[in-house]
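[job 4471] stage=fold_predict status=RUNNING
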Amino acid sequence: MSRMYTVNSIMRLVGNTEFWCLPLRQRQRQGSAMGSDRRRCLFKVLSVEGPRWILSRSWVMLSILFSITALQFANEIPKYSMHYSISETSLQTRKNNIFLGALLSLVLVVVITAGHFQYPETYNDMVFWSVIVMVAVGNLVNYYRYRRYLCLVKDHRIEIDGDEVSFFTGTEKSVLDTKEIVALTFYCKKGQVEHIQLKLRNNRGVRLEGYTDLEQLGDSIADQIPKELVVGREP
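[job 4471] inference complete, writing structure tokens
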């Protein structure tokens, strides 16, 4: 019993930082006061138990420092958010539609020109020039809208972070809270999602189409609203 008391007392002394901060002579006086038995026990503890105890305390301190560092690093990591932009397939489809429209307009101009020369009474000047002007203006408007669309979608993307759906276009940003959605409808064609329609509480609508992973985009938004508000979603 006395031996355990002596060892415990020495261990408390070893763990006492105030003791080791004392001047050397004062530590020697306190060490002499323990007596020869306690000095021998102290030597044994420091030679056998001391390194193990010191190593244990070092591991504890390292674990605490590692935990603090890990928590700080975790707080600095931004929240993961999903990004969606306009797909190259959608851009190519719009480009093809522009060329197809121009080709059909050219065919119409050739037909009306041939009719104007062969049947001037039926395809008179009024009809001829009306068709020419209408075709020219229509193609110019379509081309202007196409170029404007390319400029807008160049820096456009959608980010979903929890209950917020953020729309970025250049430096502009608008945020939609999923709580404002009262209906989400998937429109499919040949087994693939063609576009997604969102209906908001203010009776406004948001149409989503042409995005990369459009179905995943719709699923990500649908997961944030009640199931009864989702229409056309495949199980």
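[job 4471] summary: Residues 1-22, 41-50, 76-80 have pLDDT under 50 and may be disordered.
[job 4471] exit 0
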